[in-house]
Structures are given as structure tokens and as C-alpha cells.
Design a protein that fits this description.
Helix content: 55-70%
Oligomer: single chain
Shape: globular
Strand content: under 5%
Number of helices: 8
Largest sheet: none
Structural class: mainly alpha
Radius of gyration: 19 Å
């Protein structure tokens, strides 16, 4: 449940910061560092992400499941590329972020299609409602989960 909430909320801070493409984030960081400063976008975004994660009590989930959450996000991107873009590997440049042209590229999820008529007909208000309902469902499940205390193992 905790990882599912973290996956749902992984970009929630972008409601405050907006989203930039990876090349734009890199350009902002390089520009600010080239002027003798710090990676400005990374710092700006990290502070907002931390605030949101603290609010939703997800700091330890993000810290403990960083690799898994990145993998889930990458698979979501691969799925979106498959279903929502006209990407054709024969005509388009590879996406390094998805490991194109590597031994193990990121595969799209085979259990979902994003280009169904139902999804295409949904408005932003429909998506907002689905997101909110899913969050409430997961949050209720989280409040019912109890973590058993660790017992010392005697040798």
C-alpha cells in the first residue's frame, strides 16, 4: 500500500514547481552551475518534493524504495510512449531514458492500454476524480495496516 501511494504521489510536487522535460532540467542546472552556482532546478524541485512527501508521510517510503519507484515511473513512460505517441523506432531517435539500444530496454506495461476510447473520452475533471478516489482508497488501506514489532531472534 505504501509503495502504491508513493507511486501515485511521485510527481505531486510538480503541482507547485510545474514539470520540465529532462533536457530542460539539465539545461537549467548546467546554466546555473556554469555561472558558478549550484544545480538550481534540482535543488528547487528537491525542496518541494520533500515538503510534499513529508506532508503525506512518505519520506521513508521514497527513501527505501527509490529504485522500485524509478522503475515504475520508467515503465509508465514506456507505456505512454507506446500508446500515446507516434513513436516508431525505425524513424525516431532512441530514448536513452528508456534504455533504447541497450540490452535491457524498459518495456511498457502489458496489462494496460492508455489509448482506449474510455480513457480518450475522459476529461481532466474525470482524471482528477479518479486520482482523488484512488488516493482515498489507498490512504484508507494504509491506515488499517499495522506493522508488527520486530522480535529479537535468540540464538
Amino acid at each position: 500500500v505504501f509503495v502504491q501511494i508513493a507511486a501515485l504521489m511521485h510527481d505531486a510536487h510538480e503541482a507547485d514547481t510545474n514539470d520540465l522535460t529532462s533536457p530542460a532540467k539539465l539545461a537549467v542546472n548546467n546554466f546555473s552551475m556554469g555561472a558558478g552556482g549550484i544545480a538550481a532546478w534540482a535543488l528547487f524541485e528537491a525542496e518541494h518534493a520533500k515538503t510534499v512527501r513529508e506532508h503525506f508521510k512518505l519520506l521513508s517510503v521514497f527513501a527505501g524504495h527509490k529504485t522500485l519507484l524509478r522503475s515504475i515511473d520508467s515503465q509508465a513512460l514506456a507505456t505512454a510512449r507506446r500508446d500515446l505517441t507516434p513513436f516508431d523506432p525505425a524513424r525516431h531517435l532512441p530514448w536513452a531514458v528508456l534504455g533504447d539500444n541497450t540490452v535491457q530496454p524498459v518495456a511498457p506495461a502489458d496489462w494496460i492500454r492508455l489509448d482506449t476510447p474510455d480513457r480518450e473520452a475522459a476529461t481532466w475533471k474525470d482524471w482528477r476524480q479518479r486520482f482523488h478516489c484512488r488516493y482515498l482508497e489507498l490512504d484508507a488501506a494504509r491506515s488499517h495496516v499495522s506493522i508488527a514489532p520486530t522480535r529479537e531472534v535468540k540464538s
